[in-house]
Sequence to fold (1356 residues):
Amino acid sequence: MIIAERKPLNEIMDMLKGVSRLLVLGCRGCVAICSAGGDKEVEILASAIRLGCKKQGMGMEIDTDTYIRQCDPEYIEPLKERGRQYDAVLSMACGVGVNFIADLCPGVRVLPGLNTSFYGANLSSGEWKEMCAGCGACVLHLTGGLCPVARCAKRLSNGPCGGSVGGRCEIDPNVSCVWFAIHSKMQQMNRADDLMEIMPIRDWRTAGHGGPRSRRREDLLS
Amino acid sequence: MSNRITAFCCNYTLSASEAALKKEGLIPEGVTLRPLPCTGRLEIKDLLNAFVEGAEAVVVVGCEKDACHNLKGSVRAEKRVKHVKGMLKELGMSPDLIEMHFAPRKASEPLIRAVEEMSQRLKG
Amino acid sequence: MTEKSNLEHILTSGQFAVTGELGPPKNGDMEVVRRKARILKGHVDAVNITDCQTAIVRMSSLTAGLIALSEGVEPVMQMTCRDRNRIAIQAEALGAEALGIKNLLCLTGDHQKFGNHPQAKGVFDMDSIQLLTMMRQMRDERRFQCGEEIKGPAPDFFLGAAANPFADPFEFRPRRLAKKVAAGARFIQTQIIYNVEKFARFMEMVRDLGLHEKVYILAGITPPKSLGMARYMKNYVPGLDVTDEVIQRMRDARDQRAEGIQIAVDIIQQVREIPGVKGVHIMAIEWEEAVPEIVKLAGLGPRPEPKGVEPRLVSQQAIELAVSQAGEQAKASIEQGLEQVKKELQVSTELLAKEKDRAAQRVAALEKELQEAREMVAEKKSETAMLVAELNEAKNLLKNAASALAAAPVQVQALNPAAAAGVALSGQEAALTSREQMALNALKQGLAALRKAMNLTEDQFEAIKQFLEAQFVLYLGAPMGIQAGQIPVQPVSTAVMPAQPVADVGATGRSPLQQGQVTASIATEKVEAAVSPVKPVTEPVSKPAAAVVTGAEGMPPCPEGLTQEEWRNKWLIRLIAKANVCLQRGDASGAKAFFEQVLALDAQNARAKAGLERIAAGLVPTPSAPTSEALKEAARPVAEVEQPKAEPKPAPEPVKEVKPEAPVQKSEEKAAVVAAPAVQAASQPLPKEQVSLAERCGQVSKDLFMEPCSASVRPVTIGDGPKAITVGGASTLPFHLFEGEMPYAPKVAYDVLDVQPDEWPDVLSRHYSDVFSDPARWAQKCVKEYGAEAICLSLVSTDPNGMNRPASEAVKTVTSVLNAVDCPLVLWGCGNAEKDTETLREVTSHLGNRRVCIAPLTDANYRSLGATALGMNLPVVAATPIDVNLAKQLNILLENLGLPLENVLMDPSIGAVGYGMEYTYSVIERIRLAALTQQDAKLAVPFICNIGREVWKAKETKIASSDSLGDQERRGILMEAITASALLLAGGDLLIMRHPKAIEMTNVLVQAMM
Fold:
């Protein structure tokens, strides 16, 4: 899922200068699951903003709501009208939600409440880790299911660099060396020889370097 | 007028009602006592709202760490208090305006001391 | 084809190569590079020009390489992938080719995190191996990476790469080297070697792969400049293996620099001996001066005269030379001209003297010419002098700048060691003493509640309090009392006084108050059976303590683990407690007997004395002949007080939080001890909670424990007339009566089959076997004998995979049942969508005005059956396979059909306990939460749960009684009752069940909870 975290409150308060009616709008998708922008976090942020306003002597009317998702048009439909009642809508969805509202709701000023971090997994309560870079050209079948694009600091394609020590990455001993793990995994599966194949230079167009990405499925289009 | 302090405490650490404590002069007038079933029930939102609703400072008094009735309630509360400290800092406020305390069962002394300490902090 | 590089020449000719390293400056000063190049010149065959090593911004590798080349030193240009994409790298390569660079070392590059711009975007368009591939393609195929042809000169480099024998995984290192060779590397420079032994092992693996014949390997050498540097490399540079020996040598050295050089020399000599090592790469970081000495001491000097090292661009030196040569030429030509003029002047003067008279006018003209010539000479002279002065000045300036730079301090960037912070979790175990304390507090609170609830007088209360305190001390103190799994009453009565089990129930553990509670469920019947024909509910036990007296002093033998004294005290407390119980009951003589026993053991016992005095003074409360109603009411608080002792494992809970159904569980435990099927006796109502939650919560504000719902479930009515039942309608979660309304209690329908079941275990079928042949009589029996409020007629015989009875026969069965009973009826089809459509359509046309509920409607037949139900205004069951969304979807479809949801019950598919019930539970709960808290109107529909069918097909209901699994019937009953109770808590509204006892228990539970 998409992992995100709340923006620092001072940054949010700066954004809200001059706003007197605000809607803090959560999303029950990924950001709710990673405890960044669900119902609970919406209430917390609203309270924090109220406190911030109080401290700065600002008057602000704050409403809260949480939509099922902010990345499907049917769910943000009501916001087209409702959003105009506010000076700003502080979206606690990932960047997708903020963009989508900006695209679909003219006349609504939408602001980001979160920093969208990465695609990751929930290691344990309160701990997330990047697992996919969304590069659009998956090589996991060659690397024992472990991603060198998302999980190697240098996005290496052909094995661990000289900084791999004891399974740790040279940039930070808290980061594990994914190529070390790939090698062990492939060894376990008796496929270590597969790693002798030189992986060719990647085509990064699918990773967003070819411009903004989109996808169409003719069979599903109405 | 004494400072407005909201004190959250759990059912197990609360020994006397707010009125009784005030009558004895053990806690100042400005203090609001908010008993909870367990401090583990406190949400970050509740702590922030205490400030929004007018408290200048907040203290939380929960069971001693190894003797919480709900095993980890007060430890959870401590983590949330710590989180709120961070949020206060982000808002340009002092993180010292909120504090967590641990108290044995039915002992009013720690609560009184916690409130007193916070009052001093606000005055100093 | 361009000429080979000097390095390639040395290596291919079989000579042992020496390369050095030159770090460009962090500024734009060319002199730094020139100075370093001059130091290395003649001592190495080529010099690596680093490419922003450790990601710190420096003069570019290409530029510094060209400067080195202008000094006559052959550069090995390093190229990393960190800062450039394929476009920039290829562009650089073209430039390098144009300007005469011949060696290229392909690297991935240090991560930007280590450098002075950790915020930078790391490019890493490719890795070192892919870079080698690309450079080889440019050279050999004369194509850019994209495949486009390079027209004109293409980069033609002697390609090299790096290898680290000390990084992990060690066994992959030679293979990675093999990949680099396969990608085009001709020479390899290794990471700095201190651990020669490990390097030798690496080389052995390299030789095993045959790589030493395909690539020239140059061993990396660095003289440690100081102990500090050695330590730093050991601790902070990942992938560098500095041995303890090196650290020790540096520590012991008097002159660390000399020792560092000696270490480098020693290592060179060792690695030279390793087969496959074709040279050394000496990296004297910011200590280039050490290189000539190392080379000399290692016996590697002097180096052969370099070949083909020529700058293609004219260097600054050449410009200087040209300028000074031009100046001298100019000076010479001017001097020559001056000489000539002088001679001409001489001739002219002589001529003038000879022809003085003849050419007086000519003299004047000649003099004028002479003057002009003189002026011209002076001018040229001063010009020459100025040129010379300027040249000298420029030279001085350059000299000064160079020396200033050489003296500039050089900083080494330190890495911050990242400290790993482990989060320690502290485990928590409540101390036993604090638990006891808590239990005691709980007891006290419970007592207060009891007193309040029963309006006890001071004396009554005191008596009970004393009794309970005594019990508390007894159970908590006695070693057998606190073992997990034991019921507090049992051990005392069996272990201490095995002879009097009958009296004991009344005398020790149980006040008469408690007996109402004891009999509250099936388990009690056994106790009753074992105990006596006594009916404890209505008949207070009146033959108490006399029988208890055993032993000479009336005291049983001391149990193990207690001293005689301790045991005596305990025994005394117990006796007093018993006496107090008697007093409480109004049994003065019994109390007297106990008090006297106490005095016999302890003549000074004040409590006993006081007790006797009170008896004598007639202060005994009159026995109030408790009615069963009063007993029932009283049972609750006492039972709750017991709770903390009954479960020593979790922290004891205070009285108020004890669940009302606790006594059921406890009796159950007891039941397991005695084995006798006793399912016939009627269950007694369970005690109800009398104190409201708000009261029990005391000062805690309401919004902390109340989460009222904002919507309600639709009520659905089945059947007609006075016997019609309505389920659903709740505006709160099941039984959360403190938060909202639950206007209709959940109901149970008896499952009746339209054919004799062949797979029912005997323990179930024995209750119905007399009526199996006739579903109408079966239904009647359920109503008359068991008080069924609803019947579910399961048309199992219509199943096309079974008996496949036609719809017409189903009509007959249904009609006969309808005629036999007037309670609400659910008609449950065989589960085959097509056949059910056929059967139920047919049946419904014969229902008359009866509001029968038809089931199940699935996504396969909801249209036809829904239309039928709509036409006849019948309630229906919408059945879906355990999924919130499917359930909602079917409801929407039914509503779209025009069927009002007020006529729909949901069957979300359920599993029996042990057969996926938790999944069922979760789905039901989620649906109900969506309905109540998120106002999802499409899900605000009651649940029907077909429990009997699921439970009685579980194999556990069919395994015969045994020691390990207990009684078969009891097992089945409990499985059905527990499944029912769990699903009630999840949100079940109408349950379909089979065993009369299980149904009875379920009804008892429902009554107690409402």
Q: What stands out?
A: The first strand of chain A starts at residue 2 and ends at 6. The interface with chain B takes residues 8-10, 13, 40, 43-44, 47-48, 50-52, 54-55 of chain A (CB under 8 Å).
